[in-house]
Amino acid sequence: MVWVHEAMLEDVGEIILDTETIQKRVAVLAETISRDYEGKNLIMICVLKGSMFFLADLIRKISIPVTLDFIGISSYGEATRTSGVVKITKDLEENIEGLDVLIVEDIVDTGLTLSYLINALKLRKPASIRICCLLDKTAHRLVDIPIDYRGFYIEDSFVVGYGLDFQDKYRHLPFVCVLKQEVIERQRKKL
Ligand code: IMP
Ligand 1 centre from 189 Cα, in Å? Predict the structure, then answer.
């Protein structure tokens, strides 16, 4: 069992994906990606902040040459549903023209964020763009997103941990879980 501070566990509801399950799946994804991109100019793009742990684990298991860049994008305010407003909060540092871009995302919900990002990055003329997401939550999908590498499908619930946040907290939990309902209600009342 991975160590988590006891105070943090008080807020945790059901654990949807434990650390071992996540790590095993990440290893499989890394193997597939390494095979698919053999001989290509792979650049992995970490979508901040939620994908940081997923990307960090994934890239360390990639067995071919790869470069890395970060992009900050936000679609959610303080709520648990998308606002539909998408903006780049931190741009890439690298020129991706001619490169094989793999966008690494934590979760696809409505698909609005990725759809915006894919269109924005296409304008920069990469050789290819593919999507790798840890969690695929299809219940509220508004835009069809071609997900090339998927960690897990999940049911319609708001999850935190392994990079995912609620009001910017809980990212450091080493598993993916739901929060107790009273925690969400308590936080909402504070707003
Ligand atoms: P979309 O634009 O609706 O697909 O939302 C994608 C973004 O919303 C993700 O990158 C997350 O930041 C956030 N998000 C969606 N669902 C969840 C969730 O269950 N927990 C935490 N963040 C979420």
Answer: 21
Q: Determine which of 29-33, 72-76, 163-167 has the lowest per-residue pLDDT on average.
A: 72-76
pLDDT value at position 183?
Answer: 87
- Distance from CA of residue 73 to its chain's centroid? 11
**Does 99 reside within a domain?**
yes
Which structural domain, as residue segments, surrounds residue 38?
Answer: 19-155
The set of protein residues with a Cβ atom below 6 angstroms from ligand 1 is 50, 75-76, 82, 105-113, 137, 158-160, 164-165
Determine the Cα–Cα distance for residues 117 and 50; give it in Å rounded to an integer.
Answer: 15
Maximal CA-CA distance, the chain? 53
Q: Is residue 190 part of a domain?
A: no
Q: Is the pLDDT of residue 174 over 80?
A: yes
Q: 101, 126 in Cβ contact below 8 A?
A: yes
Q: Give residue 70's pLDDT.
A: 98
Task: Indicate the number of domains in the chain.
Answer: 1
Specify if 189 maps to a domain: no
Res 80: pLDDT:
58
Ligand 1 atom, smallest distance to 106 CA = 10
6 pLDDT tier (thresholds 50, 70, 90): confident
- Asked whether residue 92 is assigned to any structural domain, the reply reads yes
Mark whether 109 is an active-site residue.
Answer: yes
25: Cβ contacts below 8 Å, ≥ 6 apart: 151, 152
